[in-house]
Amino acid sequence: MNMLTEASIEQKLSPMKNEPRIKMRGDKVTVHYGEKQALFGVDLQIPEHQVTALIGPSGCGKSTFLRCLNRMNDTIDGCRVGGKVTLDQEDVYDPKIDVVELRARVGMVFQKPNPFPKSIYENIAYGPRIHGLTKSKAEMDEVVEKSLRKAAIWDEVKDRLSESGTGLSGGQQQRLCIARAIAVSPEVILMDEPCSALDPIATAKVEELIDELRQNYTIVIVTHSMQQAARVSQRTAMFHIGYLVEEGPTDKMFTNPDDKRTQDYITGRFG
Ligand SMILES: Nc1ncnc2c1ncn2[C@@H]1O[C@H](COP(=O)(O)OP(=O)(O)OP(=O)(O)O)[C@@H](O)[C@H]1O
Predict the structure, then answer these.
(1) Is 64 in the pocket of ligand 1 (CB under 6 A)?
(2) 0.80 exceeded by the pTM?
(3) What was the ipTM of the complex prediction?
(4) Which own/partner contact pairs does 96-105 have at CB distance under 8 Å and 24+ positions apart?
(5) Ligand 1 centre and the CA of 223: distance in Å?
(6) Domains and CATH numbers, the chain
(7) Averaged pLDDT, 23-51
(8) Residue whose CA is at the smallest distance from ligand 1 atom 30
């Protein structure tokens, strides 16, 4: 009889050494908006504790795919998602899934900073409060401070926590929104062109922050900036008219892509 040793079982079950664990996975993902099909059978793995950049010409389906990962497409009338999306191997479209809890585990930062018209403190405290994550004012103070520190904005706002979040600069507002996403202890953070409304200095700060955040979180970012994808991501996925063209390590995608469409896009020949 062929006896499997403990070591060989371990080898079969665990991923190859140095290979990151796969945090999320899209399997033959399709999306329709009414009659119009926007995604065609997208297979994409999102490795844990890495930044995955989604690139491709306007309208190719990057944001649509991003929104499949935390079911934000559910909020769009007439939008239907097919195929499978998993988070830690759990089907996120399973009817048993609590969507509010899913969106706390898979948080989102949008293109335009969108703080609530409330104090800086309340912007952060709101999520932990509705999810019942803290038991006392002292605990909440700690969550607020930690989240703002992790989003690299604590020093700029610590003396004005009761002032409105909307009074901050655009770059500060975006870091506030990142702090708000962090406050509910997400595992994955989705970012849809998070720097497109920011100036180069604020952009550099947010990019630096993304790099620090990946130690604790898995990040998926949609970006139109090839320089940004190259600077912040470890993996890049190239989309074109609803199809995933190719994906791989960012340095390979930018120096030696397999597909001519990727080559043309990253060198600015189309898009
Ligand atoms: N709410 C919607 N209703 C109908 N069609 C939509 C909707 N959102 C997106 N689409 C269509 O789906 C396709 C993919 O759009 P999506 O926004 O995902 O592309 P994108 O690659 O993120 O584009 P961009 O880079 O311009 O933001 C496009 O043809 C778009 O017109």
Answers:
(1) yes
(2) yes
(3) 0.97
(4) 99/71, 99/74, 101/131, 102/70, 102/71, 103/70, 103/71, 103/72, 104/131, 104/184, 104/185, 104/186, 105/186, 105/187, 105/188
(5) 14
(6) 21-266 (3.40.50.300)
(7) 98
(8) 59
